[in-house]
Structures are given as C-alpha cells and as structure tokens.
C-alpha cells in the first residue's frame, strides 16, 4: 500500500458525486488502493482512476488544479470531528447510530437492521436516511 494524504482523492469523490458517478469512483479508488497498491496521492493516478470510473479526465485534472471541492472535504472533516470520529472505518447510520472499526458481518447486519427498524420501517422519512455527503 502507498501511504499518504488522501485529501485530493476525497475531492475526486465529491466530483464523482456531482457527476452522479460517486459509487463507481469510490469503488475504483478503493480497488486501486487496496488491491492494486496504487498511490492515491498522485494527481495523474487520480485522473486516470476517475476517468475509468466515468469522470471526464480533463475536468478532473482541472478540479484538482483549481482546488474544487476542497470546502466540501473540509466540511466532511469538521463533521467527522463533531461526531468524534478519529479513525476509519467508521459508519454512521441514519445520523443515529455509529459503528467504529472493522466489525464482524453479523454485528454490521444487526446495526443495519436496528437502524432500519427504528427509522425507515418505523415511519421515519426515508429521504432523511440518504447520506448528505459522500463520506468514505
């Protein structure tokens, strides 16, 4: 794995969200990092991966150069700090429950089922369950 600051990778995720392809961008970045050992700190690599996931390469390069989406990422950082998040992975479910760290599948399923039962299935506004940001 290539360690380093992933701020720009998070900016690319926000660009993916704006373009409607964030899930594909996220998946491509995660596969590149965890499976392929790619450096997510290199602008050329980020542009290549973003293009593979459906973003326009020239627009992605321009966004990285001009600071686009930096405020969005800083907002994500502030929100994480307010929620007490100090590491990854960290899952916030419907802004009500939190699961910190890598947990067994059965614990994650239990947390998801409990959240579903108490919020969505329990009559809470389903739209409120949608994430506001593209946190990783």
Short description:
This protein is mainly α. The protein has helices at 7-19, 22-35, 43-52, 57-66, 70-82, 105-120; strands at residues 90-93, 97-100.
What does this structure look like?
With 136 residues, the chain is mostly helical. The protein folds into two domains: 7-72; 85-129, no CATH class. 56% of the residues lie in helices and 6% in strands. It has six helices and two strands. Strands 1-2 form a two-stranded antiparallel sheet. A hairpin with a 3-residue loop joins strand 1 (90-93) and strand 2 (97-100). Helix 2 (22-35) crosses helix 3 (43-52). The chain is elongated, with a radius of gyration of 16 Å. It starts with 6 loop residues before the first helix and ends in a 16-residue tail after the last helix. Mean pLDDT is 88; it is low at 129-136.
Helical stretch tally:
6
Q: How would you characterize the largest beta sheet?
A: 2 strands, antiparallel
Question: Portion of residues in helices?
Answer: 55-70%
Helix/strand-derived category reads mainly alpha
Count of strand segments:
2
Number of domains: 2
Which sequence of strands runs across the widest sheet?
Answer: 1-2
Shape: elongated
| Amino-to-carboxy terminus distance | 17 Å
Order of helices and strands: HHHHHEEH
Q: Calculate Rg over CA atoms.
A: 16 Å
Q: Roughly what fraction of the amino acids lie in strands?
A: 5-15%
SSE topology:
Blueprint lengths: L6 H13 L2 H14 L7 H10 L4 H10 L3 H13 L7 E4 L3 E4 L4 H16 L16
Antiparallel strand pairs: 1-2
Helix pairs in contact: 1-2, 1-3, 2-3, 3-4
